[in-house]
Amino acid sequence: MFFSLRSLCAAAVLAVCAATGFAQDYNAMNAAFNAQLNAQMNAGVNNIVQTNMNNPYIRQQYQVYRAQGGTLDFPSYCYRWAETGGFNPQATRNMINTSNAIHNEDMNRYRAYADHSRLVRQETYDYRNSVQDQWARQRGEGLSAQAPFVNSATGQQYTLPTNLWPGQTYYDQVHGNVFYLDPNGQYWMNNGNGWQSMYYQR
Length: 202
Prior knowledge:
The protein is an alpha+beta fold. 61% of the residues lie in helices and 15% in strands. It folds into two domains: 2-87, no CATH class; 145-200, no CATH class. Strands 2-1-6-5-4-3 form a six-stranded antiparallel sheet. β1 (146-151) and β2 form a beta hairpin. α1 runs antiparallel to α2 (26-53) and α2 crosses α4 (74-83). The longest helix has 56 residues, at 89-144.
């Protein structure tokens, strides 16, 4: 039947396309694939319709169809003839069911694609905002020469100068804490309980 012929045409084109190399650009590759698939399928369909148009029996049946009030033109009639196996009731039902199944599958794929596209856009938006926020914060830290650091032992956060040289000590006169920047650029804190490492709060 006609829908089976379309499936065979599509399968044949897929086999041909699978053997050819595609460009790295996915969008261009997809567009080229769709264009090739559609061209091959349309050529197959046109060939089947033309064969039906040259069939004397189908031409005769078309005259009966028009005499009974049918409104399709001859090419459309020949297309529908192929699609329904000669207007066979069971073949017509099969064609309708197959068309509905293809439509539902296409809609499911479209929804999956749309959902994925929305997710990618949201992830891109979130990442861009995160980068912009980080740039803004780092710029502010550069202007103020201060940045947040966290005591790895207590989890408490402290604002410390970023313009110390390695080996220098910073005294927090308000709380009585001592901070030391070692030669490797690592901050250490002494609050009377020994030295505790600090890490930069990103």
